[in-house]
Design brief:
alpha+beta; Cation-dependent Mannose-6-phosphate Receptor, Chain A; two-stranded antiparallel ribbon; 11 helices; disordered N terminus; binds alpha-D-mannopyranose; disulfide bond; PRKCSH
């Protein structure tokens, strides 16, 4: 908080006089909490200007435990500014910047203990010891890096070899494709030629069949008219060639819902808006509606229904009770309807499939069949080649690192088990999770992209996995570090359905990374 009250400032000055004293460290005098690199910004001979340039204050206000600068830069050595930064030199180990709110809070944050200067006895300087451990760890990592980078070189070599092989395969496949397409066109020409001869020969048979079919249809029609006429005559009680509503009311066949009477709705159904129908209208409109009902009554025809579904209406009809027949005084079989015979129909289909032709026609059919088969084969060959080309192109377009170091790892699957699940990462392909209690594999994502922030090759993203119940699709981030072997170190789920995998591999033992890592130890 910025406070310019002089009285307050005075009290504060008295209380924390020790923190304002400029002390000497590494031979460069600078206020407490200031790093070597920023020392020149704090000159005791000049007024101090806040880093954000908004305020200039007498140098004596620096570290006076009053926050004068909005950016907290005037209080690097006290906890007066909420956004201040305290720098510990940590000689012997890594220098560190901590939020200045932690200064003199009774907790040792800096290994040299300088953040707790108000309590000289609570922190001891453990920087030498930590530095030693850190250097040993750095050394260990450097050795892993060195050994790993040799393996990486091999991966690079293999990756490039694989890439070259694929490029060669691709050009071979392109020429195979051209050849296969040529064969396909030849087969197509041959097929068309033989098919037109076949069609010509079969036309004779088809025409004859068509004629037969027409004859049959006419016969059927005649039969239907005969059948309808017979029924019309039977229902037309007064034989005046007109069927009236009164006449059909006494015929149970028209009792569609089988409730014992032919009501208005039913007469409307069979007669439309008419009060009566003549024979022609009966044949064309009434009979097609009535016939299926009569067939159903006789158990010859059942309407389409779902499997297992019981048709209550039909079941309710007692097949022994033929009301129409009784009412009309006719024998049961007098209402018999000529139904299509299933067996007969099947027989016809059979004959259709195994037609016999004369020898010449049969030869033409066989030749055309063979030509069709050859064309199908040729088309399949082209499709297979195209699919191989697509796969190779997809691989060639994949980003396997700047030097192809990841190329041979494509498809390599690695597993990790925790208490509950077995996780599998197939590099550049997919991530899955399988419960140890059984059940099927759950997709945690398919290869998406490189996703590291500074170095994009330091993380991978697998996306679009199985939908999370009431949430997004599962996805996985794979963090990559240098290691002598390619293996998974851990799998966690930091957020529901978002997984994090730690992967170690020599492919990541890049010398340029090693240099980067070293530079962050400069202040050791
Ligand atoms: C499964 C697993 C878990 C996940 C839950 C979400 O149990 O895939 O990892 O958190 O589903 O419902």
């Amino acid at each position: 908080m910025i406070c310019s009250t002089w009285i307050n400032r005075f009290y504060s000055f008295v209380l924390i006089i020790s923190s304002t004293v400029i002390f000497v460290q590494s031979d460069v005098p600078r206020p407490r909490g200031v790093s070597l690199s920023k020392a020149s910004l704090y000159s005791p001979t000049k007024d101090f200007t806040c880093f954000d340039g908004t305020v200039t204050i007498p140098f004596s206000y620096v570290n006076d435990d009053y926050c004068d600068c909005f950016d907290g830069s005037d209080e690097p050595g006290t906890s007066a500014c909420l956004n201040g930064v305290f720098h510990c030199t940590n000689a012997g180990h890594r220098a560190q910047n901590i939020p200045s709110s932690r200064v003199n809070d009774g907790v040792c944050d800096c290994c040299d203990g300088t953040d707790e200067y108000a309590f000289p006895n609570i922190c001891s300087n453990i920087c030498e010891e930590l530095g030693r451990e850190a250097r040993a760890e750095a050394q260990r990592l450097a050795e892993i890096h060195k050994a790993g980078s040799h393996v990486r070189l091999e991966l690079i070599e293999k990756g490039n070899k694989r890439r070259n092989e694929m490029a060669e395969q691709l050009s071979q496949l392109e020429s195979d494709k051209a050849e296969a397409e040529k064969i396909k066109s030849e087969k197509e020409v041959l097929k068309n030629e033989l098919e037109s001869k076949e069609n010509e020969a079969l036309k004779v048979y088809r025409d004859a069949e068509e004629k037969e079919r027409q004859l049959k249809a006419e016969e059927e029609k005649e039969k239907l008219v005969k059948e309808a006429t017979e029924h019309f005559i039977r229902f037309d009680a007064n034989s005046d060639a007109i069927l009236t509503i009164d006449e059909i009311k006494v015929v149970n066949a028209f009792d569609k819902d089988k409730d014992g009477q032919v009501d208005e709705e039913e007469t409307k159904y069979f007669f439309g808006e008419n009060e009566s129908v003549d024979q022609d209208t009966f044949i064309s409109i009434t009979w097609p509606l009535l016939k299926p009902l009569l067939m159903m009554e006789q158990g010859m025809f059942r309407p389409a229904q779902a499997e297992g579904e019981v048709d209550q209406d039909i079941e309710a009809v007692d097949p022994k009770e033929d009301h129409d027949a009784e009412d009309l005084g006719i024998e049961d079989d007098s209402l018999d309807i000529d139904l299509p015979q299933d067996d007969h129909e099947e027989q016809e289909v059979e004959q259709e499939q195994h037609k016999t032709y004369d020898d010449d026609t049969q030869k033409l059919v066989d030749d055309a069949t063979e030509a069709r088969r050859q064309l199908t084969d040729a088309e399949r060959t082209v499709r297979e080649i195209e699919s191989n080309i697509r796969n190779i192109k997809e691989n060639l377009e994949k980003d396997y690192g700047l030097l192809q170091e990841w190329a041979t790892l494509d498809g390599q699957c690695l597993e990790y088990e925790d208490k509950e699940y077995i996780y599998k990462l197939c590099l550049f392909q997919k991530v899955t999770q399988k419960s140890k209690n059984g059940g099927s594999e759950v997709s945690l994502g398919s290869w998406g992209e490189w996703a590291g922030s500074d170095n994009k090759y330091s993380a991978m993203k697998y996306t679009n996995g199985m939908g999370c119940w009431n949430g997004p699709n599962r996805m996985t981030i794979v963090n990559i570090n240098c290691g002598l072997e390619t293996k998974l170190l851990s799998v966690t789920e930091p957020f529901r359905c978002e997984y994090k995998i730690e992967l170690e591999t020599p492919a990541a033992c890049d010398d340029s990374n090693a240099t980067q890592n070293q530079s962050s130890h400069d202040e050791l």
